[in-house]
Fold each of these.
Amino acid sequence: MSLVHLRAGQIVGNTYLTILNTGFLRKAGESEERITAVSSWQDAPYFTDAEQAALALIEAVLQPAPHGNERVSDELYAEAARHYDEKALATLTIAIGQINFFIALALIGKPQPAAHAIAWPIFVLVVAHRRTEW
C-alpha cells in the first residue's frame, strides 16, 4: 500500500508525503530500484501486475480524465478486480479514500519534510490551528 501512497504524493507534488512514504518503504525493506521507479511504474520491470493495477487506480483517481471520459473506467476497475478479491479491492478503495484525506491535510497544513516524525493526530491539530488563524 505504501507504493500507492508514494505515487499519490508524487502526483500531487507534495514533498512531505513523498519523503514520508519513501521512508516507510525503505523501513519495510523495499529496494531503491522499486522506490525510484514508482514515478515511472508503467515501463518499470519491478512491479507485479497487481501493484501496477493499484498504481493505475490511484493515478486515475488523482489525475483529471480526458474530457468526456471517466476517471476510473470499467476496464481499469475490471483489471484491478482481476488481481484483488472483493475484500482486498474494497480495502484498496478505502485506502485510496484515506490517501485523499491525508493529501488534503498535507496540502493545507504544509508540514515540512523534516517534521515527518510528527504523528498524524498531532498534525491534524496543527492544521486545525493553522486554519483558525485566518
Note: The radius of gyration is 16 Å.
Amino acid sequence: MMKKLTQTELDYILQQHSLWLQHQGGERAVLNNTDLSHLNLEGAVLHRANLTRTNFTNANLCDADMSDADITYAIFKEADLNNASFRDADLRNADFSYAQMPNVDLYRADVYRADFNNANLNDDAFNKPTIGNTIITLRGSGKSECLAFH
C-alpha cells in the first residue's frame, strides 16, 4: 500500500536529505511506494534518492534535481517537470505520460521501457554534449589526438 505524505512531512524529508548529501547528518530520502501526487517539489534536491514506485502525478517538480536517483516504476503523469534534471537517473519503466517536460535533462538516464506518451518533451532532452574537435589524451600514450566526430 502506498503511503501518502503531507507537504509538511515531505519538506522535512527533503531537509534531512539535503543534510545527508552535505555529510551533515540527516538521512537519505527513501520515498519508495510513496504518494506525492499534487505536492510542491519545486527546486527539490532529490539527488541519489530512492524514488522507486513513487507517485508524482500532477506534482510540481520544476527545477527539481533527481540526478543519480533510483526512480524505476515511478509515475509522473501530468507532472510539471520544467528544467528538472534526471542526469544518470534510473528511470526504467517510469510513466511520464502527459507530463510537461520542457528543458528537462535526461543525459545518461536509463529510460528503458519508460512511457513518454503525449509528454511535452524537447527534442534535445537526450542530447549528449558536443565532443567534436575535443582533445583526448590516450591513457599511457603521452600523446594527444584531435578527434573529429561526424
Note: The mean pLDDT is 89.
